[in-house]
Amino acid sequence: MTARFPFVLHASMLSLAIAGFATEASAGQNVFSASGSNVQINGKLFKVIGLRLSNGLVSDAKAQELITNLDLFKSYGINTFSVFFMGSRFGDVKGYLPDATIDPTYAARMAKIIEAADARGMVVLVGCLYWGASTAMDGLVGWTQTQANQAIANTVTWLKTNNYRNVFLDPDNEGMSPFTDAFLIAAGHAVDPSIMIACNRGSASVGGGSPTDCQASSDLNIQYGAKVAGKPWLESEGVPDATNYWGAYSKTANYDNYIRIGLYTSAYKALAISDAEDAINNNAGYVLASTWLQCGPGQGIGGPFMTPGGYSNVADVDANTMAVNPDAGVKWWLEAMQAAYGAWGSAGSDGGAPDAESGGAGGAPGAGGAAGTGGAAGLAQDTPADAGCSCDLGARSHKPGFGLASILVLALGLVLRHDSGNHPRHPGIDRQCRVHRRRDRSRARGSGNRWPAAARAKATVRRDGQAGSRVVRRSRWCRRLASRINAWAAAAPWRRA
Fold first, then answer.
1. What is the pLDDT of residue 476?
2. How high is the pLDDT of residue 87?
3. Does the first or last residue of the chain, that is N or C, have fewer Cβ atoms within 10 Å of its Cβ?
4. What is the C-alpha separation between 54 and 237, in angstroms, rounded?
5. What is the H or E stretch that residue 168 is in?
């Protein structure tokens, strides 16, 4: 028992350290930023290809449906999606309480979504105020600029406290609120200027405030925000023929949901694809909006649908407009994006992607992906070589914190260093690996000095490097463990500037 105690101690410490590391790594792995006319992920050029899932917080079930399908969306090239704390039409999410704090129920759903996205190298556009046709405003009608500012400040505080960096904010959907967006942006920046906040107010906005002031104070402009030199712009609510699509095509009187849900004519499909490619190739990106993705649960529809759905190959889109057609959906658009840009790889990987200057379609942005025709080789442009500690992400920067995982792994390192061994950084791991390899070999040999046939068979498996031998499994586990800890320790927070 005494001889085994050091290994048991190491295993216990290791379990705590890995658990702590997983907690810390669940957020803050990826950082969204803006630099010049581009947006970035981890300091590298990033093109937004996304979906507007504004009603994603309507229920626990729908939030989980979104998380469940993230990998599927990612396989189509989707790297961004928007989810709103308030609104939207027919969803009526009430994420803000009358005192401008975030409702804990919706905060918990948003947290799960952001963390799941971060683990996959994806970005979340966090929508805040939705002052449109929705009961989400119930209880907030008495708000002044003070309460609106506080809601944005509270949202940024929540993001900062949880170290959510794979995000950017739309503080006021389409500039529909009566509040001054420049003040909303300033309130968020006062809490943390490294969290990007967009301007979505333009000459077509129906709310109050100056579009010019909003666009001057934002980190990027989206949808209604103007396209100006030196600042990123992306389409955050892309639909074909917006006036008609969000008008008579998708709405009718006295009906608490959209009609023609997920149905598109051939002309609408072609327009949605060409608009997306134009915004991706020549601007910062495109986020598709669809009645399929953001319809409400009312009228027995059961929306929103957090899935690709079908191809909308429907002969007559005007037939039975209030029913959900079995082939309704946006799979046709997703496949077009996949064909043009490929599947989305992990953030910071070197794959093909469109370039703002090239205007061509790129290849898959996965590790080692080849550039497509006319595309730029590599989704991301490398940052300076000295950016390993605190990357220069345009006008903002983020430095990882010293969390619980750091403390636990430091403690693990101290315990491992206490053992004698030859490993230069983690002698304890090296020593225990050798002990188990010797013990397994002894058991395989049996009582004699010559290996029996069974042991020789095991040795053959070990030499061939195949799984199945206890020696192979355990020694591989030891080597992987030591390698991972060494790699993590080399970039440990306590060694950073």
1. 53
2. 84
3. N
4. 10
5. strand 167-172
Name the pairing type of β-strands 167-172 and 196-199.
parallel
Which residues, listed in sequence order, are joined to residue 345 by a DSSP beta bridge? none
* Topology of domain 44-390, CATH: TIM Barrel (3.20.20)
Q: How far apart are CA 219 and CA 371, in angstroms?
A: 29
Which two structure tokens, joined as six digits, stand for 490? 């080399």
Whose tokens are 């051939």? That residue is 266
Look at residue 69 in the predicted model and tell me its pLDDT. Answer: 98
Can you tell me whether residue 262 is helix, strand or coil?
coil
CA separation for the pair 412, 291 (Å, rounded): 52
Please report, for residues 207, 221, 317, the alpha-carbon distance to residue 204 in angstroms, rounded to integers and kept in the order given.
9, 14, 29
DSSP 417: H
Report the 10 Å Cβ neighbour count for 95.
Answer: 25
Q: Compute the distance between CA of residue 102 and CA of residue 111 in angstroms, rounded to an integer.
A: 12
Quick one: pLDDT at residue 93? 94
- What are the tokens at 393? 């992400």
Outline where DSSP puts E strands in 65-113: 80-84, 86-87, 93-94
Instruction: Give the containing element (helix H, strand E) for 52.
Output: strand 48-52
Q: ω before 6 within 30° of 0 (cis)?
A: no
Radius of gyration of the chain (CA): 26
The half-sphere exposure of 144 on its side-chain side, counting CA atoms within 13 A, is: 1
DSSP assigned state of 359 = -
What sections of 121-230 are H helices per DSSP? Answer: 145-161, 181-191, 211-217
The length of the chain is 497
- DSSP 3-state of 288: strand
pTM of structure: 0.69
Phi-psi region of 421 (alpha: psi -120 to 50; beta: other; left: phi over 0): left
Distance CA 55, CA 25 (A): 27
d(CA 84, CA 101) in angstroms, rounded, equals 15
CA distance 221 to 203: 13
- Across the chain, which has 497 residues, the per-10-residue mean pLDDT values are 36 33 56 97 97 97 98 98 93 95 98 98 97 86 96 98 98 94 98 98 85 94 95 98 96 96 98 98 98 96 97 97 97 98 67 38 36 35 33 34 46 43 41 45 45 42 39 48 56 42
Domain ranges of the chain: 5-21+400-495, 44-390
